[in-house]
Amino acid sequence: MSSPKPNQAAVLPTAKAKVVLQTRPIPTPGPDEILVRNHVIAANPVDWKIQDYDFFVDKYPNILGSDVCGLVVELGDQVSHFKKGDRVTGFAGVIYNSDIDYSA
């Protein structure tokens, strides 16, 4: 159960720009992190407002989207409450100002 390659992402390259599809590297989870292969992501009103009004994002390029649903495909060595193959859903609101490759 590996992550699909390449990793495709809808990237907002600059403030108020059009979203472009880019191939991004698949990150390696840190010791207390999991890697989720997204099956579903949600585009909700905050995403287009970020794109149109340039708020919440401190650096570009950025990947919009914070609502995710998928399968755990990799685990950090300190993770004990998930296992590969677990179905998960979550909200990752902090991603807007983190490393672009750790986004939805």
UniProtKB/TrEMBL annotation:
Domain Alcohol dehydrogenase-like N-terminal: 30-89
GO molecular function list: oxidoreductase activity, acting on NAD(P)H
Keyword Protein biosynthesis: no
Keyword Oxidoreductase: yes
Highest taxon in the source lineage: Eukaryota
One Pfam family from the record: ADH_N
InterPro entries for the chain: ADH-like_N (IPR013154), GroES-like_sf (IPR011032), Trans-enoyl_RdTase-like (IPR047122)
Keywords, sorted A to Z: Oxidoreductase
Family affiliation: Belongs to the zinc-containing alcohol dehydrogenase family.
Protein name according to UniProt: Alcohol dehydrogenase-like N-terminal domain-containing protein
Species per Swiss-Prot/TrEMBL record: Hymenoscyphus albidus
Classification of source organism: Eukaryota, Fungi, Dikarya, Ascomycota, Pezizomycotina
